[in-house]
Design brief:
70% of the residues lie in helices and 4% in strands. By secondary structure, the chain is mainly α. It has 2 domains: 104 residues, no CATH class; 274 residues, no CATH class. It has a 3-stranded antiparallel sheet, covered by helices on one side. A hairpin with a 6-residue loop joins strand 2 and strand 3.
Length: 397
C-alpha cells in the first residue's frame, strides 16, 4: 500500500507516532512498535525517533513521503500509553481501520488523568517521605521531606497549567526545597533536599538514555542523556541559590535511626505513590507494587554480597522479567510495570549528589559520584536488556 492509496493510513501512522512520543515511549520501543504495525497493515515505513521529534518515511519509490513529527512534551502518562497500545494492537490485528484509530487516538489523548489533583499532591509528599526513609532519614527528615515534596507538587501542578512556569520548574523547586531544608531545625539537610526533589531528579531519563544507547539508538540516547544532565545542573543551581538566600541555619545533624519495620512500611506505600505520579490506572497498582517490591528486595539481597552495580542489575533483571510476563498475560504495555519498578533503583540521587559536590568545589567526591551514577544506570540498562532476551514480551509496546 502506498500513502496515496489511503490517506487515513498515513495520518494514523503520523498521529500514533506523535502520541507515543508525547507520552513517554522510549525511542527504541516506539520505532519497533510503529514498524511492526505498519508492516501488518501492508505499509512500508521506517522511523527515526528522538526525545523531541520523530521522522517517519512512509511508502517506497516515487510514492514515498517523509514526515517530521515535532514532540512538544514527553510527559510520562502510563494510562494513556496503555490506551494507545490497545489502539495499536487493534489496528495491527485488523479489528479497526486506521480512520477509526485516528478518532480513538484523539480520545485517548484527551482522556483525563486517572487521579485527581489532590491524590497527585499526596503522591508527591509520600514519594518524598519514603525516599527519606530509604536514604536513612529519621522522623524529622521524613516530615521535612514530605513538606518539601508537597511544595514541589504544588509547583508541578501550576506548571502543568502555565507554560512559562514549566520552563523553570526544576530551578524553582530546587530553591524552594533548599529553603525548606534550611528552615527545618535538627535535620540532615542533604537527605531532606534529595528526598524532596526525588520526583524531579531525572534518574529515570538517565536510565532510559542508557537503554537507548545500548539498543543502538545513539542519537536519541545521547540527546536524552544531555537533557538529563542539564536538568541535574538546573536543579543543583536552584539548590545552591536557595542555600545562598536562606538565613544562617542550623548545622546538619545525623538522623535518628528508625526501627527496621519502618523501611517495610515505606516499601509498601512507595509503589502506590509511583502509580499516581506516573498516571497509571488503578487496576495496575497491584502489579506495580509486586514488581517494585520484587526488584527492590532483589537488589537489596544481592547488594549484601556484591557490588552496587551488580545488585542494581539483578534488581532490573527481575523487574524486566516480571514486567514482560505480566505484559503478555494482561495485554498491557511493558512500561506500565517496568517504569515504576525501576524507579526504586535509578541513580538519580547519586547524580544529584555529584553535581552538589562539584558546586561545593569538591571535585574528587563529585567525580566519584558521577562515575557511580553512570555505572548504576548502565547496570540498570543491562538488566533490562537481559530480561528482554530471556523472556521477550513479543508485543508492540
Amino acid at each position: 500500500m502506498s500513502p496515496a492509496d489511503d490517506p487515513h493510513t498515513t495520518e494514523f501512522i503520523v498521529e500514533m507516532a506523535r502520541a507515543l512520543a508525547a507520552h513517554g515511549a522510549p525511542a527504541h520501543r516506539l520505532e519497533n512498535a510503529m514498524s511492526r504495525c505498519a508492516e501488518r497493515i501492508g505499509v512500508r515505513a521506517e522511523f527515526f525517533a528522538t526525545p523531541t521529534a520523530v521522522f517517519a518515511s512512509i511508502g517506497e519509490g516515487t510514492a514515498n513521503i517523509t514526515r517530521l513529527v515535532r514532540v512538544e512534551s514527553a510527559d510520562l502518562n502510563l494510562d494513556r500509553l496503555a490506551r494507545l497500545d490497545a489502539i495499536l494492537g487493534d489496528v495491527s490485528a485488523g479489528r479497526i481501520s486506521p480512520g477509526e484509530a485516528r478518532e480513538r487516538i484523539a480520545e485517548a489523548r484527551r482522556h483525563p488523568a486517572p487521579w485527581p489533583a489532590v491524590a497527585q499532591l499526596a503522591a508527591f509528599a509520600v514519594a518524598a517521605s519514603t525516599a527519606a526513609r530509604f536514604f536513612g532519614g529519621g522522623w524529622r527528615e521524613i516530615a521535612a521531606s514530605a513538606l518539601a515534596g508537597l511544595g514541589v507538587g504544588v509547583l508541578a501542578l501550576l506548571a502543568a497549567r502555565r507554560r512559562r512556569l514549566a520552563r523553570v520548574i526544576e530551578f524553582a523547586s530546587g530553591v524552594l526545597v533548599a529553603l525548606i531544608a534550611a528552615a527545618t531545625p535538627a535535620t540532615d539537610t542533604q537527605t531532606v533536599i534529595v528526598s524532596g526533589l526525588i520526583v524531579l531528579i531525572p534518574g529515570l531519563s538517565l536510565t532510559i538514555a542508557m537503554s537507548e544507547i545500548a539498543s543502538r539508538n545513539i542519537v536519541a540516547g545521547s540527546a536524552r542523556l544531555i537533557g538529563a544532565f542539564t536538568i541535574f545542573a538546573i536543579i543543583a543551581f536552584g539548590v545552591a541559590t536557595g542555600d545562598a538566600i536562606a538565613p544562617a541555619g542550623h548545622l546538619p545533624v545525623e538522623p535518628v535511626p528508625l526501627a527496621p519495620a519502618t523501611l517495610w512500611i515505606a516499601l509498601a506505600i512507595a509503589p502506590v505513590a509511583l502509580t499516581v505520579l506516573f498516571n497509571a490506572a488503578a487496576r495496575d497498582m497491584p502489579a506495580i507494587a509486586f514488581v517494585s517490591v520484587a526488584g527492590f528486595l532483589t537488589a537489596r539481597f544481592v547488594g549484601d554480597v556484591a557490588e552496587t552495580a551488580l545488585a542494581v542489575a539483578a534488581g532490573a533483571l527481575v523487574v524486566g522479567i516480571i514486567s514482560n510476563i505480566r505484559a503478555v498475560r494482561a495485554d498491557r504495555p511493558v512500561a506500565v510495570c517496568a517504569i515504576p519498578g525501576i524507579m526504586l533503583l535509578v541513580p538519580g540521587s547519586i547524580g544529584f549528589r555529584s553535581l552538589s559536590a562539584f558546586l561545593d568545589q569538591q571535585a574528587v567526591r563529585g567525580l566519584e559520584a558521577a562515575v557511580l551514577a553512570v555505572s548504576v544506570a548502565l547496570a540498570l540498562a543491562t538488566g533490562l536488556l537481559l530480561a528482554n532476551v530471556l523472556v521477550p514480551a513479543n508485543r508492540e509496546m
